[in-house]
Design a protein that fits this description.
The protein is 78% helix and 0% strand. It has 195 residues and is mostly helical. Helix 2 runs antiparallel to helix 3 and helix 2 runs antiparallel to helix 4. Bound molecules: fe (ii) ion (2 copies).
Amino acid sequence: MSGIPANLEQLLAKQLTNIKQAQAAEERAGAVQQTRFLSSEMTALLTRQVGRELFSYYVYLGLYNWFADLGLDGLAGFMKKNADEELKHTEKVNAYLVDTNNRPALPAIEAPAPEYDSAVAVAQAALDHEISVTADWKNIHGLAVNDNDPTTMALALWFVTEQIEEEDKTMKLVQKLKLAGDGLALLQIDEMYKE
Ligand SMILES: [Fe+2]
Ligand SMILES: [Fe+2]
C-alpha cells in the first residue's frame, strides 16, 4: 500500500499521460516548424505571386480570345502558348510553397481588360504585363537576399531569367505589329506566327 488513495493514483497517472502526450505534440509541432524554409513575409509575397502568375494566364487567354475572334490564328496561337506557360508558372510557385510546408491561401483573380483598340494595343498590353511581372520577381529576389534564403533566390533567378525571353519575344511582336499597321500586312505577320 502506498498510502495514496487508488482514485488519486489513477488521477495522477492520467495527468502524467496527458503531460507526455502534450510534450510529444509540441515536439512534433517543433519538428514541422524547423522544416519551414520561408519567412512569413516571403510566404505572403510568393502566395501573392501565385495569383499574379494565374492573372498572367488570364491576360494571355483574353488576348488569345481577341485574335481568335478576328480569325488571326497565328497570333492567337502565340497568345495561347504564352497562356499555357503562365499556367505552368502558377503551378511552379504553388508547388514551391507546398514543398516548403505552406498551405497557400490562394488570392482572388481580377478580370483582365475586356477590349483593345488594335492589334498593337493587344501586344502592348502583354508587354506591359510582362514588365510588371519582371519587377515582381526582382522584388522577390531582393527579399530572398535579405532573408538569406538561397532556395527562393534560385527560384526567383529562374523566373527573372525566363522574363528576359518573355519580354524579348513580346517586344518583337509589338515592333512587328507597329510596322504592319492594321492593313493587309497584319495578315502577313499572322502567317509568320503560324506553326
Ligand atoms: Fe509568368
Ligand atoms: Fe510571362
